[in-house]
Design a protein that fits this description.
Chain A: It is found in: Cell membrane. Chain A: It comes from Ruminiclostridium papyrosolvens C7. The complex is a heterodimer of chains A (362) and B (308). Chain A is α/β, with parallel strands linked by helices. In chain A, 45% of the residues lie in helices and 18% in strands. In chain A, the strands form two sheets. In chain A, strands 1-3-2-4-5-6-12 form a seven-stranded mixed beta sheet, sandwiched between helices. A six-stranded mixed beta sheet of chain A has the order 8-7-9-10-11-13, sandwiched between helices. In chain A, helix 6 (157-170) packs antiparallel against helix 11 (327-341) and helix 8 (222-234) runs parallel beside helix 9 (247-258). The chains are: A alpha/beta (362), B mainly alpha (308).
Amino acid sequence: MKKVLSSILTLALIVSLAACGGSTTDKSNSTSGTSTGDSTPKSSAAASSFAVGMVTDVGGINDQSFNQSAWEGLQKFSKETNASISYLESKQESDYGTNLDKLADQKSSLIWGIGYAMADAIKTAASQYPDKTYAIVDNSYGEETPSNVIGVVFRAQEPSFVVGYIAAKTTKTNKVGFVGGIKGDVIDQFEFGYRAGVAYASKELGKDITVNVQYANSFADQAVGKAIASSMYTKGCDIVFHAAGGAGIGVIEAAKEANKFAIGVDRDQSHLAPKNILISAMKLVGKAMDLVSTQVKDGKELGGTTQVFGMKEGCVGIPEKNPNVDQKVLTDAKVIEGKIKDESINIPYNKATFDNYISTLK
Amino acid sequence: MLNSILLAISITLMYSTPLVFGSMGGVISERAGVINLGIEGMMTIGAFTGATVGYYTSNPWLGFLSAGLAGGMLALLHAVAAVSFKANQTVSGIAMNFLGLGLSLFLSRLFFQGATMTKPVTEKIPKIFGKINSREHPVLSLLNMDTTVIIAFILMLTIWFVLYRTKWGLRIRSVGEHPAAADSLGISVSTIRYLCVILSGVFSGFGGAAMTLAVVSLYSATAISGQGFIALAAVIFGKWTPQGAYGACLVFGLSQALVVLLGGDKVRIPSQILSMLPYITTIIVLVLFVGRSVMPKADGIPYEKGTR
């Protein structure tokens, strides 16, 4: 009996491991049960008639990523408009609903959910409190956006295009790499934007620069990220861009060990490896939240829409200081940024648009 | 071709080393009759402690040892619950996973200004040939593995020697097979079990540090994401023997290396299918080559004095 049980358990373990090989969000969800508890929202700024609240994803307010950027954006908004702001941290996914309820009860007029994981919770809350306005980062409900919900998404392909352009102009081996987390619409923006940027620069240079693309199938497994990047560097790539979350830490480590370049994502990651981060493709969540909050406060009806932010709005981009990039390349990149802003380059964001883009390039 | 083979070897060893430490922890604990499902949590606290001590002291070895200590301390809790209080070992082990992860994140926020990520350490655990230039010695640099790879191998040999060639090993095994018999011969079942569970935490802690001080150079919330459970599977796969578990970890690492090497642009296999490879290989090898795996008879059963 015990043997049967143990073998079943083993199989179950292996199978479940296989099944959740890439579920990073779940992982961090079950984990962050420890931050300083809070049942009352933490507020700042003086009272004013307009109150904005936000509910963090399970990463917590100091996650050095989206949540932190979001809160910084709201703080800026509060300074500019004197609105009162507050946040609630979610420890696990089941907190989303409760936290959203709490904020609604505390008279917040605009309530933010940070991250697409909150999509369902926001939708439910929006139907329960039809007089409140809700907004969600990184999620679009498309046609089905409730009339009091604002979707906020980013054109991540734009900074990816720029870093791809910079990578192509910096590479000495004419081979660059891309490591993705798990294939999907969001990561496609990064992959195809990057590849388009490389293709654009190769045409400009009259060179043939190849892009190695590989997926880690995980946003968490740092060893896999490192293994993929190491193999790319061994095969001759000298710059690798990652859009792989935690697995990307492995990519950066591989760059350090091989003494080659990696390109950071979401925010300026140069502090992780000052000598080996060429540049980062940034997504400035806080900036977008500041913009949307201000518009809502000014009485603009944004409910029921999806707001898309990109370079033109200053919500994506590259860091200001990039000591590892050649000055001339940076100047060229500025020109590209200008072209993206005035929409004279149409940047692909998935396979179909990419193929189309390549055919127009020739 | 040679480069690909060397690359496969280096990825295999890199990937499997944290697993080897974890599975050695599993072997030593289960051979003494205590199931340790908390390896994941012990690896996590080790990963955090290793990176943190490594960052503040700039001495990776000190970090590595502290990681073992931290893992051992968490394991002590498991031992208290499982041995002294005869609690359900599965439940206690799973509790250790939550505790390990939660504690790591909590302490990380305390030490690193609220961030759930440590800063990168300045000194990593050195590689066996030290720092060499990959341009001058391309082959040597591929073989330049982390020192932890060697430590893991020596640890496996040591555990094998202790378990099968020493009096202590016989005692450990007898406690795991038939604690009443061992007790009647004057062996203290609870002492042996305590010791083995604590050692299990120490090894797991090393495994965590092997991740954050050798594979990468910082701790983040996803540093240990399932390695502890793979290590546990390796224990069973390896029939509860150190050499078997070691082999199982290598098989797992090798198939992971194949995923990486086959996943390049040349071969058109969907990456989702490829990433199943390690798990499928494991099941196939388990069914075809390993055969029946028999756990220690008293594994998971708290010992009550006087029972037969």
